[in-house]
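Ticket 4471: requesting a sanity check on a complex prediction with thymidine-5'-phosphate. Repro inputs:
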Amino acid sequence: MTIEKMMEFLNQPNVHIGDPDHVKHVIEQLIQYGPDKLQIVADFDRTLTKYIHKGHVCATCHNVLEEGSLPEFYKEEARTLRDTYFPIETNPKLSIEEKIPKMIEWWTKSHGLLETCEISRDSIQHCVSSSTAKLRDGCSWFFDELKKYEVPVLIFSAGIGDIIEEVIKQQSTMHDNMHIVSNYMKFNEEGKMTGFQQAIIHIYNKNENAIHDSDYFQNIEHRTSMILMGDSLGDLHMADGAEVDHKLKIGFLNSRVEESLELYKKKYDIVLVEDETLDIPNNLLRSIL
Ligand code: TMP
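Returned structure tokens:
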């Protein structure tokens, strides 16, 4: 697809672009440098997965456990926590600084609660298969195509790594060019969950965690083009450790659209509103790969 065709394709009612000239320029660069220079950084919940499917809100990684066979007290508590903290997460009137302590509170309480549930490693497969978590339409094509061209994909998530792996395994393919950084559960010898392996990754510390202490970005520093995909403003910092020349930021705005659109348009290059597919990133890849 030529750049003109691509820009035409972006001219859809659910696609919002603050600075079309900038977007055109970056896409031109991504096309020019091609797959050998490309890397992808993507959030998981509500970025690679759907927010809504057939009129119902889909599960995040944490919700997968909530929907699963965990005790009733957990489900009630987890719901109460979500009802308290999700509106704070998505409130465009609060600053990130105001949100951070609340998000730390949410993740700390939520993970503390999970630790009391004696989750068995074996139950995860069933929790995922019976859950409402769904990869976006076109996600398998996205993964397969990036594997075909050996483009590294970093999935950086404040969700739960064990759940992410299982969702991808069940609904698509986990290829060896894909790397997940997330909260991974710790299990004892009996296969019961006892906690998490590392310090909490919540939506606003994706810039200072695991990946930035590792040599991930250094090892692929010759890849100077990046497509970054996220759904929260915290996701914009997922690649702070990478020095790239051309970065296209695609944001999925799933809820509180009217209040948040202007802010998202300032922060993301392309904002996709109420789009449950990966059609736009996939079309871009058709031009670049
Ligand atoms: P993400 O980094 O993959 O987007 O994952 C974070 C999402 O998980 C964020 O939208 C909030 C959500 N979440 C829950 O649904 N339940 C929980 O208990 C916690 C801690 C987070």
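Notes from triage: The longest strand covers residues 153-160. Leaving this open until the requester confirms.
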